[in-house]
Design a protein that fits this description.
The structure is a single chain. By secondary structure, the protein is mainly alpha-helical. It has ten helices and no strands. The longest helix has 21 residues. The two termini are 31 Å apart.
Length: 199
């Protein structure tokens, strides 16, 4: 455990001396969670951005009232990722992992950050850590993404293994077909060897 955090300037917050003990943490947490959940469901970009801004301010306060709470830093990382502030997103994910590098959610969402940017090497590093640390949310999706990454690397045996685990967790006709295609293919004739991403 390491409670050291990286100072991240926020566009919604000024560097002010604030007494965080004066805040009603339960009210702020309820509001923060509400705004964040609304943002996840909102399709209108402007409304979504406003929900995310409102959530950002409140999670920032929460992260200062409880500096050892991994969840707040992880969610701030997700929010900044969604808002396109890469530097801030990474800083908050590193903060979260600095507090607890075995937190499954922090590892998973940092993996998602890299996966969405096609940085598969780092995505798989954090996905593997999330699985090793007991990640429970949507395991079929995580396993499917790991299968996809290994398929891109040309490691079809490992890709098929992850796809099989994904289907065992949640049946998926398209992934089942992909497994059949991989297992029925002559590796040297698939073209994966010449097109794969080099590690």
């Amino acid at each position: 455990m390491n409670n050291k955090t990286v100072a991240v300037p926020l566009d919604e917050e000024e560097s002010l001396s604030v007494d965080y003990t004066k805040f009603n943490v339960n009210e702020i947490k309820t509001a923060a969670d509400g705004y964040f959940q609304s943002a996840l469901k909102e399709e209108d970009k402007e409304k979504r951005e406003q929900y995310l801004k409102n959530a950002t301010t409140r999670y920032y306060i929460l992260s200062n009232t409880d500096k050892g709470n991994v969840k707040y830093y992880t969610i701030l990382g997700r929010i900044y990722d969604m808002r396109g502030y890469d530097k801030y997103a990474k800083a908050y994910f590193y903060n979260a992992l600095g507090i607890n590098d075995r937190d499954p959610d922090a590892n998973y969402y940092f993996g998602e950050y890299y996966y969405s940017r096609n940085n598969y090497k780092l995505a798989i590093k954090y996905y593997q850590k999330a699985l090793a640390c007991g990640f429970k949310q949507e395991p079929s999706e995580l396993l499917k993404k790991m299968g996809y990454i290994y398929e891109q690397y040309g490691d079809l045996q490992r890709a098929a293994a992850f796809y099989k685990n994904s289907v065992a967790s949640k049946p998926d006709v398209q992934i089942s077909k992909k497994i059949q295609d991989i297992e029925g293919a002559n590796y040297s004739s698939t073209g994966y060897d010449s097109k794969r991403i080099r590690k």
